[in-house]
Amino acid sequence: MECLLRRCHQEAGVSSVFRSVLITVCLILVLCVSLYPRLWSIGVRLHSAWTGSFVPGHHSVLLLNSPTEQAAKDIGRYYWKGEIQDVSEILMLVKTKTSQIQKVIDYVRSFHPYANPEVFSFPVEEGSLSYMKWMDEAVPDD
């Protein structure tokens, strides 16, 4: 009988330890899932600091339509150095090879009047094969 009682106590101890570990693991998982956006943001910042680049897909560009020029101006206001900016800008679409993007960015920075010009790159997934062949011929790789 004593042997049976010792065995029950041992199994109860193992069961309570297992239950505690399981609850702890579940709480950690819930905490990680709830903090995921913040953890992702910290990871992206660390990656950027270490490599000097950004994680693809972390930033987005939106293309918007507007019914009137005034509505576009209202939507397009932004903060810069603590003030609301309401300026007219002209959007340029520059097409080049991916290997030449940094050269284009450097060129834009050398001439652009803004201290921090807006330059984004979008990879071409599909398009006119004849146009892309022409770009390969027209834009040098070096």
Would you give an account of this structure?
With 142 residues, the chain is mainly α. The chain has four helices and two strands. It has a two-stranded antiparallel ribbon. The longest helix has 50 residues, at 2-51.
**Largest sheet, if any?**
2 strands, antiparallel
> How would you classify the helix and strand content by structural class?
mainly alpha
- What is the alpha-carbon Rg in Å? 28 Å
The tally of helices reads: 4
Q: Residue ranges: pLDDT <50 for 5 or more in a row? A: none
Task: Give the CA-CA distance, first to last residue.
Answer: 87 Å
Arrangement of strands in the largest sheet: 1-2
Taken from the alpha-carbon principal axes, the silhouette is: elongated
Number of strands: 2
Question: Helices and strands in order, then pairings?
Answer:
Elements: H1 2-51, H2 69-75, E1 78-80, E2 83-85, H3 101-111, H4 129-138
Antiparallel strand pairs: 1-2
Summarize the structure.
This protein has 142 residues and is mostly helical. The chain is 55% helix and 4% strand.
Keywords:
two-stranded antiparallel ribbon, 142 residues, 2 strands, mainly alpha, 55% helix
